[in-house]
Amino acid sequence: MAIKPPIRMSFPKTILLVLFLLGITSSINLYSQGNYKLENFGNKSILLNGNVTGSVSDLGLTYYNPSRLALVENAVFTINAKSYQLRTVTLTDAFGENEKLRNSEFNGIPSMVAGTFKVDFLENHKFAYSFISRYRTSVDLDYQTPRIEEDIFEEFEGDESFIGRVKLNNDQKEEWYGVTWAYAFSEKLSVGISGFFSTYKYSGSNELDYVALHSEDQTASYSSEISFNQESMGLYWKAGISYITSKKIELGLNINLPYWEIYEDGSFNYIEVFAGSSDEDIFTINELTSLKTKRIEPLSIAIGAGIPVGRNKLHLNVEWYNSSKLYARIRIPELDSDTEIPPELKFEEKLKAVVNFGLGAELYFSPKFKGYLSFSTDYSAFDTNANLFDLINQAGKDINFASNYFHYGGGIDLSMSWAELILGCTFSHSQSEFAQPVNFPTDGIDDTEGGITEIEFSRWRFIIGIEIPILDKGLKKLKGED
Length: 482
Description:
Helix content: under 10%
Number of strands: 22
Number of helices: 3
Strand content: over 45%
Strand order of the largest sheet: 1-4-5-7-8-9-10-13-14-17-18-20-21-22
């Protein structure tokens, strides 16, 4: 998907640079849609990087394996307190050899609130509720250039005075509202199901305005705006089974069924206005509503084990995610345009099958003090994806923005008489390469040749969580305590 100004005007380098940097920042949000393990839920489960399918010991079980709920003795309330993350993106050779750019962002992260409850006439059945902020990301950036002297119009001799403005917005939000049921056939075998109702909103916009005073004391202006909105409501289902061997090895299987979409809606706006040149003016407005949209979250299966090593425990996990065919996130019909070739805009994605694995260690120091260490892979599922880099792509290149993450975690668990306090952090890192969207040789912009850009992501997350037993010892069985 590419938006280009009329061919009679050349993009000033400053505008291209700003568009590229804004695209980098906002693409951090879009980037997460192709990776499945960027977000984890439940205090200990976060520090273990979600490697808990067979051994989850907090109410993150509603997300990772609902069958583990059958091991909860008494009612418990848990909350992920407000936590923060520091994200940094670094680009090398983005605008030529040995050119490096860096952008950092500090903000809050998604959280979870969960608790257990009883149904009196179902004595041997266990229930829990959970509210999960699965995605909450927002970028809103605005930049105005200083006055620039540059040759913009081919039909006029000499440089023109130029002022430009770039504005970009990207928001993604998804909330889950869930209920979990579990039943234990014995002390060793249990099953469970979680059902979540999801509300999802994804929107983005890119605005460009510039005004130039050329050599004949006339003013020319160009503006364009592209914006979209996707809304979806649907259901997620998770089915799990747990088994504990005679040697107290905990085994678990969790099946995540494909997302069942029950409501979808989309809109798309495309505006392009150009006036003041010696050629014909352009005035194009497309405001499209009630567009067909589609959201896909494929089938996945996770297996895991919790292996006791003395008083310590080793957590192992493997997850498989299915692929998908090429599909349109938003179906955009042919647009009306005053340009010779109307723009053809597509929001299309294709997912490939991926397998992730991870491990974690739970270290016992005393009855009131435990430690956690973890590692997991997070391979990108994107085979084809629509991304904001394509909005500024001037050379018609295919920029498939996807990369693989590696996650590391560590923290401590302090047990007190009234609650458990979990403190720690996680670190995520990714590094990949893609074609340069823009090339800046010393003698002007080259739309046909470009090199390779290296992009590096890093993210620190700082976790503070609390678990409050409502009755007695709460998760006594789940943690293997007497």
